Amino acid sequence: MDWGTIAVRLEDIVAAHSGEDTFDEVHALIIAKLAHTHHLMEASEFLPASRRTQRVNEWLDCASHAWPELHTSYRSSLADSALAECASLLEHRSVSHHWTEGLDAIFEYLTTRHMKGSKGQFFTPRHVVDHMMQVLAPQPQETVFDPACGSGAFLVSARNKDERCVLYGADISPRAARMCRTALVPTGVSASSIICHDSLDTTCALPQSWVGTFDIIATNPPFAGDVTNEYVHSYALHQQGRRTERDILFLERCVKMLSPNGRLGIVLPHNKVGSKRYAYVRRWLLCHMQIYAVVSLPQYTFAPHTSQRAVIIYAQKRTTPLHRPDDTEQVCFVVTNVESKDASGRLIEDPGSSHVRHDLDEAEERIREHIKSCNVGNEWP
Ligand SMILES: C[S@@+](CC[C@H](N)C(=O)[O-])C[C@H]1O[C@@H](n2cnc3c(N)ncnc32)[C@H](O)[C@@H]1O
After folding, report:
1. Which of the two residues, 128 and 376, has the higher pLDDT score?
2. Which residues, other chains included, contact 376 with Cβ-Cβ below 8 Å and sequence gap of 6+?
3. Are 76 and 25 in contact (CB under 8 A)?
4. Confidence (pLDDT) at 117
5. Beta strand pairing status for 289-296 and 310-317?
6. Which residue, 116, 160, 273, 379, shows the most beta carbons closer than 10 Å to its own?
């Protein structure tokens, strides 16, 4: 059974047995399981046959002691009988230290499920996240930021690539930020580096102090929706009297948040590179960043949430913006067309293996070669 299915089953059990918020209960179970995996107390069994409720809460006590920054004050009220069903799903599962598979699937399920109605809150498939981190190649002590971090997939992937990079995340949803902290605090990331915040808000003190500081930004911002907040007027890409799309503001914000020579990997709707209407966005971007590569993703990459086509842009911030784009700079365009999902959003595996089918490895090779050929001394590792 995959972790996404486990998440669905856990939530069903909790919903059937409890009047409590299912998000909090499932989140508590996951933290208890994490405490067990980290051996926070001497107990071989996760949930023994009797007094299961008491044991869950003992694990939660240990977790709040070990990771006070997680603020795990919630205590389970599930009866032993319901916990027996949850135990059968979780008992023999191990939550890997590297958190590669599994828990982010649960987090994704819980986060999206509880953010229904909000726009653009779908998650990036793991193989796309990992491909982006391969290209961005975080190095020891480099800072990595995701301004729309969700449950932290990009940050987890960066940490798996190099344990010594320094991670920062922000998400407007308190639950997403909480999930992201749960994923990262037990691995030593400070909870104060993962904030619940509107990353587009240029008037707030904390992210203002982060402006211009990050070595790497990797993100898949929400595509949908226009922004009407007062702060849109502080954006160069806001056009008086016209709708201002959220992803355009995210793009500008990311550029501002990067340090000079900082590296950007961002997922954007295809129309931002293809449509005449956004020529002004591309012009602005080319003046502020050297664009190395644009990767077009297959149509169902974000199914079932949307079949809108998307691209990944890889770019590096200029030390000084240009007045006009430099026509001599070459951009590597890569079209990936091996669908990793079917139209219903189910991942397609390579025959005879449990690997998701995709052609992003070939894309990575081409992008690396291209960057190497044009990045003379600009520090793209
Ligand atoms: C498409 S999801 C991507 C999540 C995650 N980075 C991933 O790729 O799996 C976009 C995320 O942006 C968050 N978001 C939307 N508007 C935001 C804002 N103004 N500031 C910060 N986060 C925002 C949503 O809550 C959601 O978690």
Report:
1. 128
2. none
3. yes
4. 42
5. antiparallel
6. 273
Nearest CA to ligand 1 atom 8: 124
Residue 170, pLDDT above cutoff 70: yes
Measured by CA distance, the residue closest to atom 2 of ligand 1 is 121
- Amino acid at position 25, single letter: E
b/e map of 312-327 (b: 16 or more CB within 10 Å)? bbbbbbbeeeeeeeee
Average pLDDT taken over every residue of the chain? 89
Residue 173 to residue 118: CA distance in whole angstroms: 10
CA 121 to centroid of ligand 1, rounded, Å? 6
Q: CATH 3.40.50.150 spans which residues of the chain?
A: 118-374
Mutate to test the pocket of ligand 1, among 172, 206, 230, 231 (most ligand atoms within 8 A of CB): 172
Burial class (CB in 10 A: 0-12, 13-18, 19+), 328: exposed
Q: How far is the CA of 199 from the centre of ligand 1 (A)?
A: 9
The ligand 1 atom nearest the CA atom of 176: 27
66 vs 367: CA distance, rounded Å: 42
pTM to 2 decimals? 0.91
Per residue in 258-290, pLDDT (tens digit) is: 999 999 999 999 999 999 999 999 999 999 999
Average pLDDT over residues 96-111: 65
* 126-159 per-position pLDDT tens digit: 899 999 999 999 999 999 999 999 889 999 999 9
Residue to mutate, 113, 116, 121, ligand 1, most ligand atoms under 8 Å from C-beta? 121
Q: Which protein residue has the closest C-alpha to ligand 1 atom 5? A: 150
The confidence band for 115, taking pLDDT boundaries of 50, 70 and 90, is: low
Query: Does the C-beta of 217 come closer than 6 Å to ligand 1?
Result: no
Q: Which atom of ligand 1 is nearest to the CA of 199?
A: 20
**Sequence letter at residue 332:** C
The mean pLDDT value for 210-222 works out to 96
Q: What confidence tens digit (pLDDT) does each residue in 316-349 have?
A: 999 999 999 999 999 999 999 999 999 888 889 8
Residue nearest to atom 13 of ligand 1 (CA): 148
Nearest atom within ligand 1 for CA of residue 120:
1
Residue 198 CB less than 6 A away from ligand 1 = yes
